[in-house]
Write a structure and sequence with these properties.
Elements (H helix, E strand, L loop, with lengths): L25 H8 L14 H22 L9 H10 L5 H6 L3 H10 L4 H10 L7
Length: about 130
C-alpha cells in the first residue's frame, strides 16, 4: 500500500476566489437591497385582551378581598340552647355530665346558681335519700 501524506502532496485549488474587500462592504450592500418596512407600534392599552385581563384580575382581587374580610365564624349557641340540647337530645345522665366538670366549672356553677338550705332539704326529701346510711 502506498504511503499517503497530506502535508507533502500538492494542494488542489478549488477555483473559487472571493474578490478583494468583498466582506468589508457586504453588510451595507445587503441592507440596501432589503425592502424598507415601517414598524407598526400598537399600544397595549388599545388591545382588548389587555383590558379584559386587567378587568378580570381586578374582579378576582375584589372578590378575594370580600371573601377574606367577611366574618366566617359560626355563631356560638347560648347557654339556654346548650341546656335544652343536653336535656332533650343527649344520651348523657347528670352523673356523666358531672364527670366532665373541673373545679373551675364547679366554682362558676356555685356562683351562678343560688341554693338555699330549704331547697337542699326539699330535694333530699323528694329523692328519699337516707343520710344515715
Amino acid at each position: 500500500m502506498n504511503d499517503f501524506r497530506l502535508d507533502k502532496e500538492p494542494k488542489i485549488t478549488t477555483g473559487f476566489k472571493v474578490p478583494d474587500a468583498y466582506f468589508d462592504s457586504f453588510t451595507e450592500r445587503l441592507m440596501q437591497q432589503l425592502p424598507q418596512q415601517e414598524v407598526r407600534v400598537i399600544p397595549l392599552y388599545k388591545r382588548k385582551p389587555v383590558w379584559l385581563s386587567a378587568a378580570a384580575s381586578f374582579i378576582i382581587m375584589f372578590m378575594l378581598g370580600i371573601f377574606f374580610t367577611t366574618n366566617t365564624a359560626t355563631p356560638q349557641p347560648d347557654d339556654a340552647e346548650i341546656e335544652s340540647y343536653l336535656t332533650y337530645h343527649a344520651g348523657m345522665s347528670s352523673y356523666d355530665l358531672m364527670q366532665h366538670l373541673d373545679t373551675q366549672d364547679i366554682a362558676e356553677l356555685e356562683q351562678s346558681i343560688p341554693v338555699s338550705d330549704e331547697a337542699i332539704e326539699e330535694y333530699l326529701s323528694d329523692e328519699s335519700i337516707d343520710l344515715n346510711e
